[in-house]
Amino acid sequence: MWYSIHDILFSNQIKNNEYKKILHNHCIHLWDTYTSEYLTTLTEEKILLENTLYNQLARKFISNKISIVMLTYNRYEKTIECLESYLKALEKEGIQELILFDNGSNENLCHYLKEFEKKHHKIKIIFHHENIGVCNGRIKLFQEARGDIICSLDSDAKLKDSHFFDKIQDIMYDEKYGIIGISGANLKSWNFGDQEDIANDDNKDYYCDHIAGCCQIFRKELMNYGFGLDPYYGFFWCEDTDLSMQALQLGKVNFRFSGTNYIEHQWGGGGAAYHDLFKKNWEYLKNKWKDKVLHHIS
User: Would the pTM count as exceeding 0.90?
Assistant: First the structure.
């Protein structure tokens, strides 16, 4: 109603419950006879810098740029092949930057990365002296990103077609989406490993429970609502599922779209050595999210 519109839309104190109600609306009445004092003083600068709910809904129509963020750790040839595939895409106006966080790679890869950084002014590389893991490395990347949309990719996700980023921008105009990506799954229960993966070669698009960490894309402003990687997961695994659950808790939907024509990604097989870590992290995730999201599973 008109008498509460200032508290809901124009306050710097974000209320998550009100945000969740607004997400799936087709339009919002701004009651200009009541809010004209606020609306007539709006500037482009205010919309971009002040985190009212209205401004966050509106700013994508002023700026909708993408930060590509990526962890690197050894795998010299595969990493080079991947990174080189993104150089042409950096010419696109919609790409804000490419930020790499190197998790203590060997000398050969570090030397290459220093040379790679010189290839385009949009490239920024953060070198770390030791491997702090996937979760903690991505936390650093998300903090550094300046774009409106964060596109987090694995360093073996080779770009085939730069129209991938046009598709991302088009999808992310819609507020209903939380995390989007090219690989997803649905949880069948809260038991460890009980999920149904969407086949990589499936050319259909799906709403799903979980978007895999090899390609997770979301609006950076979600971080104003408490959204972000949980450092508990540390070295790796389950952090991407946890982030997907956070999007669902905010009232969003997660969306897997076919990446066959855009990204070439081959799943690695190194996880078997960390089975005990997987189970430990899954227990933490289950206890954190059971009965809070995905109420249809037990």
Answer: yes
Q: Which band of pLDDT confidence, cut at 50, 70 and 90, is reported for residue 258? A: very high
Q: pLDDT tens digit string along 127-186?
A: 999 999 999 999 999 999 999 999 999 999 999 999 999 999 999 999 999 999 999 999
What's at 204, amino acid-wise?
K
pLDDT of residue 70: 98
Across 204-213, b (16+ Cβ under 10 Å) vs e yields eeeebbbbbb
What does the alpha-carbon distance between residue 33 and residue 231 come to, in Å, rounded to a whole number? 46
DSSP state of 146: -
Does 298 fall in a domain? no
Tokens of 273: 């050595």
User: Could you list the residue range(s) of the whole structural domain that residue 86 is in?
Assistant: 66-289
Residues 172 and 282: beta-carbon distance below 8 Å: no
Residue at a domain's end among 61, 78, 104: 61
- Which pairing describes strands 95-103 and 123-128: parallel, antiparallel, or unpaired? parallel
Strand-pairing partners, residue 265, are 157
Q: How many domains does the chain have?
A: 2
For Cα atoms 268, 270, 275, give the angle at the middle one, nearest 5 degrees: 130
Query: Could you tell me if 12 and 224 are in contact, meaning their C-beta atoms sit under 8 angstroms apart?
Result: no
